[in-house]
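Dear support,

Our group has been running a series of protein-ligand predictions, and this particular one with uridine-diphosphate-N-acetylglucosamine is the one our PI (initials K.S.) wants archived with full inputs and outputs. We had some confusion internally about which version of the output was final, so please treat the block below as the authoritative record. The input we submitted was:
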Amino acid sequence: MEVICVEGGYPVTGKVSVEGAKNSALKLMAATILAPGVTTLKNVPNIADVHVMGKVLKELGAIVQVVDEHTLRIDTSTVDSWETPYSLVTRMRASTAVLGPLIARFGKAIVAMPGGCNIGARSIDMHILGLEALGVEFDVDHGDIYATAPNGLTGTTVNLEFASVGATENLIMASVHAKGITTIDNAAREPEIQDLVDMLNEMGADIRGAGTPVIEIHGVGELHPVTHSVTGDRIEAGTFAAIGALVGEPITVRGFEPDHLGLVLRKYEQMGIEVKRGHRCITVSRSRPISAVDIQTLPFPGFPTDMQAQTMCLLALAQGTSIVTENVFENRFMFASELQRMGSDITIQGHHAVVRGVSGLSGAEVRSPDLRGGAALVMAGLVADGMTTVLDIYHIDRGYERFVEKLTALGAHVSRKEVPDMEALDV
Ligand code: UD1
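Confirmed final output from the archive:
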């Protein structure tokens, strides 16, 4: 079993570049199904979730070739299956992103019910309701979802109950060839959706309104493959920005659009953190104590749920009391109980967390509850007294490329270590 060991108290400063966005790359990979032929994706992060999506595509018959560390060539002319097995979907909920493209291309799909991060119910009812409105018929049997479109797809207006990222993406991809116009009302506005729409339009689709709550998809014929570069990862960037804010020494984060972190950076400024915005980069530092602020997570352009744990880590050391409200995922405070082991003072009441700032944290053995919570625990270890050991780091590997190496290059005393798995040994 591998763990990450962090020795707290060392300066962490310098420049770091972020990779392409995980949440974009996964959907772009799925979208290649829509354009039979060879699509080249650049700036693809080399992370576990991308490897899983590569396996999903291979399972469907695509040829996925790694050109270099961050470039994939995906030939989807050979796709001849529309079934995604449970073994892969259970490892990554985002594999349900192939549902829309498979329906659009073949008029059918079989996708296992999703698993993924342990952060709530995460059902896909909105995907299903939206696709049904377009003419897709569903059957659920033994944990698999069988989708068919016997009469093809016909454009209509779909009102999403919540601006779901995954449902918006699946509906966009499913409807690229639908008859007439499909309108998604209350669509998600995340930058990764804009990236997906940009690539689909480059492929020949006619999609309007990405980045607004109303997206219109005008059905077109065949799409053609393209070469596309994945947008920079705003959440990886935000994580390093939070580290700069926590440790205090300047950290320059490059390779993403600062606007994609708009509200996060404004909140950080309210917390007394200095943020300098540049062209595709920011520099974050802090010379005074962190001030408490309240945050609530919301769909973009609101405060991203994927930055909640890292920000809670900052607030745990702030002067004063902050309220953190989680509106997107019902089960995303598991990080807080691990941080308690390091001496924080956090009370959870439903989807609110009352975070009373403490003067310091102490190193402890803690368990990554999920992807962002895991990164936030490593972050906490950087300023904690003594040694922090973070277990279950496979969560971190799902979404952060070379996290330990990047931190080490910034001066952190952090390393991966192989240790015996006591649970497996039944000790
Ligand atoms: C995506 C991101 C994830 C991010 C989240 C919110 C990827 C791979 N993952 O996840 O990192 O935290 O957006 O920004 O892009 N819901 C339903 N029914 C549905 C769909 C969603 O109840 O049909 C609920 C979910 O359980 C959750 C909330 O809606 O509570 C938001 O989900 P959604 O926006 O769809 O997130 P994901 O696409 O799963």
